[in-house]
Design brief:
Blueprint: E1 2-3, H1 6-26, E2 33-39, H2 43-59, E3 62-68, H3 74-86, E4 92-95, H4 105-111, H5 123-131, H6 139-150, E5 159-163, H7 170-178, E6 187-191, H8 198-202, E7 207-210, E8 228-231, E9 235-237, E10 240-242, H9 247-251, E11 256-257, H10 265-283
Parallel strand pairs: 1-11, 2-3, 2-4, 5-6, 5-7, 7-8, 8-11
Antiparallel strand pairs: 9-10
The protein binds nicotinamide-adenine-dinucleotide.
Nicotinamide-adenine-dinucleotide (NAD) binds near residues 163, 191, 213 and 214.
Length: about 280
């Protein structure tokens, strides 16, 4: 049984990006830049933003912090996004969600230049993914595919079950898995809260992806022997973090599994940095 080490893989990616950026700047290119927009003082968002800025610094990416008070108006925010859209040294724009009440997140995401949409949440990026056109892919699903690639676990021709249909994980992941390619080309079933027999669906999976947000909902008896289990869930309980899989019973059946913490989680920021470097590469070519 393979325990998929997302922490180590994310570190490898960050080191590769740092090397590419350092070679680029040594040859005279400007450094990549990420605008980080945080509105209000939500403690969890502050931690996420700090981690993203730290990741940028380690990779040689300049981060430009734009912190607005919770009282900021929609107009203030749209003006700021436009400023970032036109700033030549900004390759990516990250709008930390959720926004405080009264602000329209969809309208703000729509205002971001799709060429700088490193979070992959702009409707154009989502449309491009759906049509199989090049574009930014949202970071968590992109990180999952990257983990499969680096652990040499191709999904081509396999049966994949995705549990969860959110716009940020389940849906884009299902689209990626149906794209042509060695780490696509799967036959995908998407399950959600209204799926009548979740256990039966899960048992059909060669690759089981869990993005539910329910601690230890998926148990070993719901998993096919030898399945690859990718657990995206991050649940906070009295005994610390746990995933959507009951790790003990599921890992006894799986051929490979991502632990929580240390599996998918660390990949998200690594992919944000990767998307930013990709944008920089294109914009400074
Ligand atoms: P969400 O709440 O938007 O979606 C959850 C999905 O699970 C829904 O589509 C719902 O239909 C489905 N669901 C709920 N109960 C179910 C049940 N009993 N049976 C079958 N399906 C059920 O959540 P999300 O934003 O997609 O996040 C899911 C989990 O992944 C959360 O724990 C979140 O913290 C975690 N997450 C981790 C990362 C990361 O590792 N970087 C990123 C995003 C989300």
């Amino acid at each position: 049984m393979i325990v998929i080490d997302g922490k180590k893989t994310a570190q490898d990616i960050r080191a590769e990006l740092a090397a590419e950026v350092s070679a680029g700047t040594a040859s005279g290119r400007r450094a990549p830049g990420l605008a980080v927009i945080l509105v209000g003082a939500d403690p969890a968002s502050q931690v996420y933003v700090r981690n993203k800025e730290k990741g940028c610094a380690e990779a040689g990416i300049a981060s430009f912090a734009y912190y607005l008070p919770a009282t900021a108006s929609q107009q203030d925010l749209l003006k700021l996004i436009e400023e970032c859209n036109v700033r030549p040294d900004v390759d990516g724009i990250l709008l930390q969600l959720p926004l405080p009440d009264g602000l329209d997140a969809q309208a703000c995401l729509l205002a971001i230049d799709p060429a700088k949409d490193v979070d992959g949440f702009h409707p154009e990026s989502v449309g491009r993914l759906s049509l199989g056109l090049p574009g930014f892919v949202s970071c968590t699903p992109a990180g999952i595919i990257e983990l499969l690639r680096r652990y040499n676990l191709p999904t081509r021709g396999k049966k994949a079950v995705v549990v969860g249909r959110s716009d940020i994980v389940g849906k884009p992941l299902a689209l990626l898995l149906t794209r042509p390619g060695e780490y696509g080309d799967a036959t995908v079933t998407m399950c959600h809260s209204r799926t009548p027999d979740l256990a039966a669906e899960c048992r059909t999976a060669d690759f089981l992806f869990l993005a539910i947000g329910k601690p230890r909902l998926i148990t070993g008896d719901m998993v096919r022997q030898g399945a690859v289990v990718i657990d995206v869930g991050i649940n906070r309980g009295p005994d610390g973090l746990c995933g959507d899989a009951d790790y003990e019973s599921v890992s006894a059946k799986a051929s490979a599994i991502t632990p929580v913490p240390g599996g998918v989680g660390p990949m998200t920021i690594a992919m944000l940095l990767m998307n930013t470097v990709q944008s920089w590469r294109q914009r400074t070519a």
